[in-house]
Structures
1.
Amino acid sequence: MDSNWNDGQPIYRQLRDKVVAMILEGALTDGDALPSVRSVAAEFSLNPLTVLKGYQQLVDERLVEKRRGRGMFVTEGARTQLLKGERQRFLEHEWPRVVATIERLGFDAADLLDGRKEKSK
C-alpha cells in the first residue's frame, strides 16, 4: 500500500480503494489478514479512526470480515465479487467512451487488432 493521498477524496475512502485494488491484483487473497488498524495508522501517520472507517466500509460491502480478537480478513469470494462489479462498471461507464473514441477515429476491429500486435513487438 502506498501513502500517496489526494485531496479530492476522503482518506478513509482512498484506503478502502487501495485494499480493493490489492484484492483485485491478488496481493490479498481469500482468508488473508488485513494489516492491523494500529499498524496502518502508524505507518501512514493516520488517525486510527480513519483507518477503521475505511476498513468498516469493506466489512459493510462484505469484502472483509471481522474476527473478534484476531483482526480483519478477506472474505471468501471477495475478488470474484469485486471483478463482477468492476466489469459491470467498466461496461456501463468506460466502455461507451472507448467505443465513441474508436468510432470518432474511424478504427475498425482489424485496425485495433493490428495496433495491439504492433505494441507487443
Note: The longest strand covers residues 64-67.
2.
Amino acid sequence: MRGKGVGKLLFDRLIEEAKEKKYSGMKWQVLDWNEPAINFYKKYPEVNFDSGWLNCSINF
C-alpha cells in the first residue's frame, strides 16, 4: 500500500491521539537501512533522529 497515503493517515491519527491523551511524546526505532521508512519520517519536521542508538542481539 506504499504511496497511497495510508501510512500518513495512520501516523497522523496516532500523533493526534497521543496529543489528545496529553502524552509527552513518542519513541520508536527504525533500522538505518530502511530508507523508505526514514524518508517517510523525514516528512515530519518534528521528528528527531538519534544516531546514537544501535540494536544488538545474540542468537544461540
Note: The mean pLDDT is 88.
